[in-house]
Write a structure and sequence with these properties.
Chain lengths: 186, 186
Amino acid sequence: MKNLEPSIQAFILHFGEMGSHWGINRTVGQIYALLYVSDAPLNAEQITDALGLSRSNVSMGLKELQSWRLVQSQHLPGDRKDYFSTPENVLDIALTLLEERRKRELDPTLTLLRQTLMEKPGSEKEKHAHERMQQMCDLMEQVSDWAEDLQRLSRTDLELLLKFGNKIPRLLEMKGKLSIMGKKKR
Amino acid sequence: MKNLEPSIQAFILHFGEMGSHWGINRTVGQIYALLYVSDAPLNAEQITDALGLSRSNVSMGLKELQSWRLVQSQHLPGDRKDYFSTPENVLDIALTLLEERRKRELDPTLTLLRQTLMEKPGSEKEKHAHERMQQMCDLMEQVSDWAEDLQRLSRTDLELLLKFGNKIPRLLEMKGKLSIMGKKKR
DNA sequence: CATTAGTTTCAGTAATTACTGAAACAACCG
DNA sequence: CGGTTGTTTCAGTAATTACTGAAACTAATG
């Protein structure tokens, strides 16, 4: 890893580590971190040089990041190389991440749970297991719905919502007054 | 893996896979899934038998789960063995998971970012990088605060909040009316 | 305090996952 | 076309991570 300011290098290394706690491989995390802080789109060769990885490794990493829709590629005029960059706004990044993880992990799990719960349990043990799965299924559906709703909000609304934070309890106090909210069943 | 009903087996296998997408190793995921659906606490030997793992592997897995505070151990009267179980309520499980991940991943990242941002950037490139890190830092702080606030809610309030879901936009419409909310600066 | 029942640790090994370089492929250009 | 520049694929290898069995440890029991 060369020609990188120490603070940038630390950031990149940290994200590599974080990645590996999140089921994303280290170099993919590093590539993303580099693109994230870079002030201009980078081509694969520049990434290779900056991080000291093999060209093919970078290529695979970029492909993976594209499959997550976390990087965009573009061509600069007069240059045949592909240049990669991350979205300007961190919120967009977070939302994309949320959506992809939902698609890849939550949804398949829900599918499995729902399928299983269609069938009658054959024993007492299985009956209990199904009850537990039902609880999990309910929670996951709610989380999934929440996430879906977040996707739909405008960025302004999202920013607003994020600022709420410690106002949540106060918000809940008002539930009584918002009769409108309890009316429809989900 | 023996003596397990097919639907339970599928559940356990699925969670093993999920685990590996989440930086948790497969067998740890399986152990957790087994305990989660079990109708009574299990000792290490029972887990070993049910999943076909080595005794020591189970021991390490349980230790890991305990470090995440995701399983509890207890002694049954007249038996020296340790018996393991998961919390009754899925919400509690989810909250614990959220809190631990915050502690282990979000907080250290925030620490690094804040440290870095204390220093003056030395170049234009670094200046841009710092701006990006600042954005990420801000978002992470908000998310961290949100999570912290969630921890504090009662279970009833949490269940209520989860049901909101698609009511979020309607909630935001009211922001104007809730002058109380915008008063304090964060 | 020796025996038994249970748990944990750890060095060695197996399995998985990540990385590489060479070759194939693709697109552009004169 | 044939050459040039750039990208992707993939089989082999390296590195990492997970798993095991044997031994060490711990605590209760007669």
